Amino acid sequence: MSIPSFGLGTFRLTGQAVIDSVKSALELGYRVVDTAQIYQNEADVGQAIAESGVPRSELFITTKIWVENYAADKLIASLRDSLQKLRTDYVDLLLIHWPAPGNGVELPEYMAALAEAKKLGLTRQIGVSNFNIELTRQAIEVVGKGEIATNQIELSPYLQNAKLTAFLKEQGITVTSYMTLAYGKVLKDPVLADIAAKHKATVAQVALAWALQLGYAVIPSSTKRENLASNLLARDLKLDADDMARIAKLERNGREVSPDGLAPIWD
Question: What domain range includes position 32?
Fold first, then answer.
């Protein structure tokens, strides 16, 4: 099993907006859809997938367990509820959404429940999201080396997370990059615009191609069909060593997401 490198994110999309986005993406050839319990769109995503006619066997569906469902007696029940909404018997990847230190459920308890979900066949793979190095180490101790498929983290040309990504690579854990466009901030970057002009590409394609070339999986979202189609072309864009070096210099620790009570102490 492995993590596909390109997928569709659905954060902040609900109702008809997410239904249209997922259906358009699937028509364009996307086969990976990323959602979460807290997005409150799992039922919409399930509807869009059902209406698309794409066979379940061709899809890779990810969802994430929300903080209030971390307890051992809640996690699996909440996952079964998510599966019902998604109209599927299993997800391909199940993640703990945030470490949420101090929320009353300790890491060994929720990681053991996550491993149990896999054992029950409710998910093919398990992973984490927004974990720092120390918490990822603790998670590995609970479920065993080789069991954590990915750590889904905020990453962009403005937040390159060198220490954490190096550690994950060392552990054989795939990095999944979310917020790769930094809420659209990188789209105005002159260096990225220059690289885009050189390759006759868009700035979004350059940012996504940068992440892909570093070996990360990406899950950009859009409500616009033309952007969904354009983003897919990032897979064919090859940046050269000079491009990659110039992007490396854009690091500014530009974190966009770090909610109190949910986020760890970042590396």
Answer: 8-184+215-222
Residue 146 lies in a domain: yes
> Could you confirm whether 39 is annotated as catalytic?
yes
Binding-site residues from annotation for substrate: 97
Catalytic residue among 39, 110, 158, 178: 39
In contact, 157 and 189? CB cutoff 8 Å: yes
Model pTM greater than 0.90? yes
Q: Which CATH number belongs to the domain containing residue 105 in this structure?
A: 3.20.20.100
**From CA 218, how far away is CA 233, in angstroms rounded?**
13
- The tally of domains found in the chain comes to 1
Whether residue 261 is contained in a domain is answered as no
Binding-site residue numbers are: 97
pLDDT tens profile 151-175: 999 999 999 999 999 999 999 999 9
Q: 10 Å Cβ neighbour count for 262?
A: 15
